[in-house]
Amino acid sequence: MAGNDLDLDDMMNNNDNFNNEDNQNNNSPAGPSVWIFGYGSLCWYPGFEYDKCITGYVRGYVRRFWQGNTTHRGTHEKPGRVATLVEEKDGITWGCAFQVSGTLALDYLRQRECTLGGYLTDYIKFFPRLASEHSGISGEAFPALVYIATPKNDLWIGEEPIVETARQIAQCRGPSGHNVEYLVRLAVFMREELPGASDEHLFELEGLVRRFVAEANLSIGALLGSTPRRIRRDSHENVRRHVSFEFTSRVPEKRLRCLHI
């Protein structure tokens, strides 16, 4: 995938060094660990055990609800809409990274994201928001495993009018719950955990979905289901440096482009 200046071999080697240092610090008997970048439902419902969770961002991608879903948030007759990453030169996507050890989490995610969701795996540079002196997290970018959808899978929706995406989200439900829950809880995560971070696509979708739900005389609360367990993030000892949103001033100004929708 384009958009990152660190090749896959370098990322794997750096990840091994990073994980080995972290395992030595934690005296972990589980062997080498891996970091997983979550930018969708993983942000508020990982569904697996993990050692650490930290917030941060990746560059060169934007979050878009261009992937269909028939196993969690929709059906074959009425596919839901879930997030994926789409390459964009100046893009920034905020989310969180989970450090996991062993194979249980990876096996679970392979079933959840790849077998059922249609996602592929890759490594991507992750930039932590916080740096901690004793956690092994320096604030520098490190490789994280990411699950990403492409136009080659059968569930790919692709770009469509955002109003149509919002309408589908407002109407779809699957075995894991209503599609509205997926979107709204992700937007809540962004506002509560990363105030000031920008995601125009996500927040515009949320506003449209809330409008459609209200017009249907439905309650957002009733569509959210039970409240998931709160995730402790960035809970490292002796936080010494805060990486703020000032990086946005270094991102080149976006150019307007025509969208044929």
TrEMBL record:
Enzyme Commission identifier(s): 4.3.2.7
Source domain of life: Eukaryota
Alphabetized GO MF terms: glutathione specific gamma-glutamylcyclotransferase activity
CC annotations in GO: cytoplasm
Bias-annotated ranges (Acidic residues): 1-10
Biased composition range(s): Low complexity: 11-25
Keyword terms, alphabetized: Lyase
Catalytic activity: glutathione = L-cysteinylglycine + 5-oxo-L-proline
GO biological process, one term: glutathione catabolic process
Annotated spans, Disordered: 1-25
Enzymatic class: lyase
Family to which the UniProt record says this protein belongs: Belongs to the gamma-glutamylcyclotransferase family. ChaC subfamily.
Protein name: glutathione-specific gamma-glutamylcyclotransferase
Species the sequence originates in: Culex quinquefasciatus (Southern house mosquito)
Biological classification of the source: Eukaryota, Metazoa, Ecdysozoa, Arthropoda, Hexapoda
Gene symbol of the encoding locus: 6036794
